[in-house]
């Protein structure tokens, strides 16, 4: 028995030699039975992990190996013991940490991932959370995920996807991408990746999340369609339509009014309506109308003139109505006009 045994168990050799294992209470009866059984059955025990009780009453985790040997005509047991308490504590801590990370990752409304790119350009996946099947409909198997993910990206988005990733790797900058993914069931979803790199020696580690933004994109597309439809109605309307904010700045004009005034949409944006589109001699009267609308938020019906870029004057019958904020304050007012120049 060497000194290492005393270091592990706290027992000196004089306290151990000549005593049976049952007397020492170092091993539990169950572990002692298992070790004895294995020795009798196969004549050896190889790397059995057990918990022992040491002299001060505390516990340690050790690995025991033992074998029967013949010594001076007697069958004896030659055994070794290695203290792995610290290693087991570290392993348990890492396991708990991994369980916590996995638990957190699985509560995030997306797929948490981490991959590396080494200096030779080789990619490898380190981690992907379990929501990958739910969102993308593919396996979260580490060895195949990157291939499956890239293959599922819509053909029209493939080049843009690879270009964005290549740029992020070259510049060691954030990688953000939005595109379409074709699931194995044929359903197309919109996804967005957001990740940031950290250099570790000769590897660039990207940690981030893949989000399903299908609902957001569909709502945005629907809104865009509604805007286009509304703009179409404005543009084909045979009347003049203008929106002006509370400071008298032009917000928009429809196509009919733009063509009459000989301006483009960009040219009228934020222009002072009175000083740009109303003849100088009419500005004070029109200004009074604006003040009345701002003051009592009432609809108006009036006739006043507008002038084009080339100096052509139109007499217009205007119907004006304020648009209010939830607070009751004026947001902007809108005017709908009919050219009555020929009637006068």
Automatic annotation (TrEMBL):
- Output the Gene3D superfamilies linked to this UniProt entry: PAS domain (3.30.450.20)
Question: Which terms under GO biological process does the entry name?
Answer: regulation of DNA-templated transcription
Looking up SMART domains in the UniProt record yields:
PAC, PAS
List the catalysed reactions: ATP + protein L-histidine = ADP + protein N-phospho-L-histidine
Give EC number(s), comma-separated: 2.7.13.3
Q: Which residues form the PAC domain?
A: 45-96, 175-225, 300-344
Keyword Transmembrane helix recorded: no
PROSITE patterns noted in UniProt: PAC, PAS
Q: Where is the PAS domain?
A: 1-48, 115-172, 225-297
Task: State the PANTHER family in the record.
Answer: PAC DOMAIN-CONTAINING PROTEIN, PHYTOCHROME-LIKE PROTEIN CPH1
Q: Return the protein name.
A: histidine kinase
Organism name: Methanospirillum purgamenti
